TrEMBL record:
A single BP term in Gene Ontology: protein targeting
Organism: Reinekea blandensis MED297
Membrane topology classification: Multi-pass membrane protein
UniProt-recorded name of the protein: Protein translocase subunit SecD
NCBIfam families assigned to the protein according to its UniProt record, in alphabetical order: 2A0604s01, secD
Assembly mode: Forms a complex with SecF. Part of the essential Sec protein translocation apparatus which comprises SecA, SecYEG and auxiliary proteins SecDF-YajC and YidC.
Record field: transmembrane: 7-25, 452-471, 476-498, 547-568, 580-603
Superkingdom of this protein's organism: Bacteria
Entry keyword set: Cell membrane, Membrane, Protein transport, Translocation, Transmembrane, Transmembrane helix, Transport
GO molecular function, one term: protein-transporting ATPase activity
Domain SecD export protein N-terminal TM, residue spans: 2-104
Subcellular location: Cell membrane
Domain Protein translocase subunit SecDF P1: 231-288
Presence of the UniProt keyword DNA repair in the record: no
Length: 613
């Protein structure tokens, strides 16, 4: 019989619609502004005592809160407004001190009956008021100083290997290394070696300390290249760390000479994100000093100290992979894999230093709040940055190893996991500090966002009015299909964990237009068939059947464009492409199957004298 679906097809369509309604409902529950508190050191547990200390500080400052809870490794305190959230962060940062990371958060309010089956609200991009914005500054002076220190050690080692006698090699200012030679002959040999191997420096002969000497000064081009490398390397590292955290559509972008902007839309555990992004943790492997001319470092877990050689064997920069494992005593450790250069150097050192102690130095950049300063009429928290170097392991070299070995001496599995993540994601080329952190409202302004939402509603309403006026009952079918199309788009994007941005809303509007276009094609085809004198049931069947190929062709070509946009686009362009792709699939379902099902239910199999279209 024409225009009749079997029962299973109606049930299938109903199941899809119920699926869409269920998984779109979480978007009716907005997130609460919240503060998250996490310890700066992995493995340190925050508890009810910390929570009580935080809530006491809020009460003393008349900040209302609710829904406080102790989570696995952090605390969460919900607040009533964004203004309270920002004020609470400032108070807790000062009151709790540098032992804790205080981060802005958005706490979900989705009820358990929706989350039980994986329901969750759609992540919103920063332009739709979701996520956190960090502005981080690269310490270029520290980076260049570190590079000069490394060059100093390399020059000493190379001069010894070349048989060039010297009395001293030292960094004398921000961009210059001074080399004091024994006599003029050795200075000539040194200059020849410098010209072959140190193209980033210009040389200047002089007499210093009564000795023939050479000043090696970094060229301006070399400094610029080093700064560019540091920014690019830090961007890559931050991207890797963000990917490890699992943030949807993040933005990591250079700003000016020495700053990087990081935007994390939809991020929930922002305290962990801040801790991971800002931590400049690295490892250095050094031999214990034999001649007393090394550097003294404290052990992390005791009051002991040890002197290690100044020359570094390998660093975290040489690490290509790092995973959590356990040593022979069942204590947490990190299994490390080095690159070829690091592996070769480690192999040489262990071969020539069997049974001699080698230390693992853990280096971490930290900061602590020191108070507020007025900047452009606003109070801005100021931080003191400092570096911590602690020995986490000192053991005799029991055998020759190169690219793969184990690092022990860690306090907990959590610390091992965090160190492995940082090493795996890559070391920061230069230390970084947070200079700004804020929640981000609509980038185009709340008024523009409200107008954009209003325009969608008005446009949708006008489309419905047009369809009902011109196509009567069939226009009602189209309106139901359009509504369910929006519900399905929201449901699928929520399940996919996609991030909705302002361009994504444009994709939804375009989807509505395409879905209407499909219905117009179908209904116009039905009218043509009726005008040609075809029976009503035959006209309905022909209208859906013959318009389908045209609709399919139009949607396939648009879908291909969406795939290309996603493949070559970035950021908001990808968001538009995702929304458009999902909308194409749902509009095919609602414009063809759903409206056909409604038509069949109302008119299918009936002996009609006239069709209201």
């Amino acid at each position: 019989m024409l225009n009749k679906y079997p029962l299973w097809k109606y049930l299938l369509i109903a199941a899809v619609l119920l699926f869409g309604i269920y998984y779109s409902l979480p978007n009716l529950y907005p997130n609460d502004p919240a503060i998250q508190i996490r310890a700066t050191q992995a493995g340190v547990i925050v508890n009810n005592a910390t929570l009580n200390q935080a809530t006491d500080l809020l009460e003393e400052n008349d900040i209302a809160y609710f829904g406080e809870e102790v989570q696995e490794q952090s605390l969460l305190i919900r607040l009533y407004s964004n203004e309270d959230q920002l004020l609470a962060k400032s108070i807790l940062t000062t009151g709790l001190g540098g032992e804790f990371v205080i981060a802005l958060n958005l706490a979900p309010t989705t009820p358990s009956w929706l989350t039980a089956l994986g329901g969750k609200p759609m992540a919103l991009g920063l332009d739709l008021s979701g996520g956190v914005h960090f502005l981080m500054e690269v310490d270029m002076d520290k980076y260049i100083a570190t590079r000069l220190t490394n060059w100093e050690a390399d020059i000493k080692r190379s001069l010894r290997e070349e048989g060039i006698r010297y009395r001293g090699v030292s960094v004398i200012n921000d961009d210059t290394i001074q080399v004091n030679l024994v006599n003029d002959e050795f200075r000539d040999q040194a200059n020849r070696w410098f010209s072959r191997n140190l193209n980033d420096f210009v040389t200047d002969d002089l007499t210093a300390r009564g000795l023939p000497s050479v000043n090696l000064t970094l060229t301006e081009e070399a400094i610029i290249a080093m700064e560019d490398y540091a920014i690019q390397q830090n961007q890559t590292t931050l991207n890797n760390r963000v990917n490890e955290i699992g943030v949807a559509e993040p933005l990591v972008q250079r700003q000016g000479r020495n700053r990087i902007v990081v935007q994390l839309p939809g991020e929930q555990d922002t305290a962990r994100a801040k801790n991971i992004l800002g931590k400049s943790a690295n490892l250095e492997y050094r031999l214990q000093s034999r001649d007393g001319n090394g550097e003294v470092f404290p052990f992390r877990d005791s009051n002991r100290t040890v002197m290690l050689e100044r020359d570094v064997i390998v660093t975290g920069d040489n690490v290509t992979n790092a995973t959590v494992t356990y040593d022979q005593n069942g204590r947490p450790a990190v299994s490390v894999t080095l690159d070829s250069a690091g592996g070769a150097r480690m192999g040489d050192i262990t071969k020539n230093n069997l049974n001699h102690p080698m230390g693992v130095l853990f280096i971490e950049q930290k900061s602590e709040p020191i108070g507020y300063e007025m900047v452009d009429g606003e109070q801005v928290m100021q931080y003191r940055n400092y570096e911590v170097k602690e020995v986490i392991s000192l053991a005799n070299i029991a055998g020759v190893f190169s690219s793969q070995f184990q690092t022990t001496g860690l306090d907990s599995s959590a610390e091992a996991s965090e160190l492995a993540l940082l090493l795996r994601a890559g070391a920061l080329a230069a230390p970084m500090t947070f200079v700004e952190e804020r929640t981000v409202g609509p980038s185009l302004g709340a008024e523009n966002i409200a107008k954009g939402f209003t325009s969608v509603v008005i446009g949708f309403a006008l489309v419905i009015v047009f369809m009902v006026v011109f196509y009567k009952v069939f226009g009602i079918f189209a309106s139901v299909a359009l509504s369910m199309n929006l519900v399905l788009v929201i449901a699928i994007m929520s399940l996919l964990g996609a991030t909705l941005t302002l361009p994504g809303i444009a994709g939804i509007v375009l989807t509505v237009g395409m879905a209407v276009d499909a219905n117009v094609l179908i209904f116009s085809r039905i009218k043509e068939e009726l005008n040609a004198g075809k029976p009503i049931q035959t006209a309905i069947d022909a209208g859906y059947g013959r318009a389908f190929l045209t609709i399919l062709d139009a949607n396939v070509t648009t879908f291909i464009v969406a795939i290309i946009l996603y493949a070559i686009g970035t950021g908001s362009v990808k968001g538009f492409a995702v929304t458009l792709s999902v909308g194409i699939l749902t509009s095919m379902f609602t414009a063809v199957l759903l409206t056909r099902a409604l038509t069949n239910l109302v008119y299918g199999g009936r002996n009609l004298k006239k069709l209201p279209i």
